[in-house]
Inverse folding.
């Protein structure tokens, strides 16, 4: 049966990515769009053949709702949509207070509705190849995670969140992607996490453009040191290093489909994933194919992102 789609927030991610993939969603026959800036709503509506709507009307008439508004609006919008009994997909970052994340997940359960978080890198080939290798335990126990991601910020935003909004800094923007990728690879997204000994360095108060942190993620059975370095001003290596007992796995944070494995007294080698992704539009299309598949969408269910929310909260407050 065909469903109606509501899009809350019509900024750059919708205009540059979503509009190119939504046309392929065969299960959608009606689209409603809303943005606090009417010009943005009109632009997206014209491209998609959608109907510009007020927020309450959109929530009422939509079966599935995608929230792409700025992160500081997510909590209240999620509550409204979940109370209305809608399937909801929230763009990253989900939330940045763990108490709110837990409440929202509980609301979804109590209203018997599906809630997903769109962290697109979970479909990327190198990320999934690294996950398979990590789960094989051929490298032994994990000793440390190192995350480096940085480049000159050249993405054109409609709202200017990256310089205006206290939740628009590099940590929540690209950093949430990189942290989630590391937690997904290592299975930490399925465990209860606490953050200890967080030491943070920023270039300025939020929204910061350079962010570094040393901290420890603790579970019931392990303590994993993490080194994080993010930048919107300088190029970094854009990779995750998984430092393990018997070697190091280097995982690219882009569309590359290979990882590099270094082991003591052995020659390093490169392993290739069995599939490739040629663009971020393709990656997003793959992500939504999984979300719309009830047999596979577990990796995007909101409960998998509570731990990440707690990490982000701790680092933001440090």
């Amino acid at each position: 049966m065909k469903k109606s789609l509501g899009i809350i927030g019509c900024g750059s991610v919708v205009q540059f990515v979503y509009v190119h993939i939504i046309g392929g969603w065969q299960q959608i026959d009606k689209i409603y769009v809303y943005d606090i800036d009417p010009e943005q709503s009109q632009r997206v509506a014209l491209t998609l053949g959608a109907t510009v709507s007020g927020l309450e009307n959109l929530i009422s008439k939509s079966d599935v709702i995608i929230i792409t508004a700025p992160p500081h609006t997510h909590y209240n919008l999620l509550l409204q949509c979940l109370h209305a009994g809608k399937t909801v997909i929230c763009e990253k970052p989900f939330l940045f207070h763990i108490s709110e994340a837990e409440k929202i997940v509980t609301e979804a359960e109590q209203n018997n509705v599906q809630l997903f978080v769109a962290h697109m890198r979970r479909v990327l080939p190198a990320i999934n190849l690294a996950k398979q290798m990590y789960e094989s335990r051929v490298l032994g126990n994990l000793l440390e995670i190192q995350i480096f991601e940085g480049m000159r910020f050249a993405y054109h935003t409609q709202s200017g969140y990256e310089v205006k909004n206290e939740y628009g800094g590099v940590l929540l923007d690209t950093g949430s992607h990189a942290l989630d990728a590391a937690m997904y690879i290592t299975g930490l997204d399925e465990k209860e996490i606490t953050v200890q000994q967080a030491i943070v360095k920023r270039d300025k108060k939020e929204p910061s453009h350079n962010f570094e942190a040393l901290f420890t993620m603790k579970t019931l059975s392990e303590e994993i040191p993490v080194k994080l370095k993010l930048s919107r001003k300088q190029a970094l290596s854009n990779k995750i290093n998984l430092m393990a007992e018997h070697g190091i796995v280097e995982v690219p944070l882009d569309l590359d489909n290979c990882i590099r494995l270094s082991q003591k007294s052995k020659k390093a080698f490169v392993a290739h994933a069995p599939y490739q992704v040629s663009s971020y539009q393709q990656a997003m299309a793959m992500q939504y194919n999984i979300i719309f598949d009830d047999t596979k969408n577990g990796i995007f269910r909101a409960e998998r992102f509570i731990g990440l929310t707690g990490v982000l909260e701790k680092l933001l407050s440090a």
Notes: Residues 48 and 95 are 28 Å apart (CA to CA). The mean pLDDT is 95.
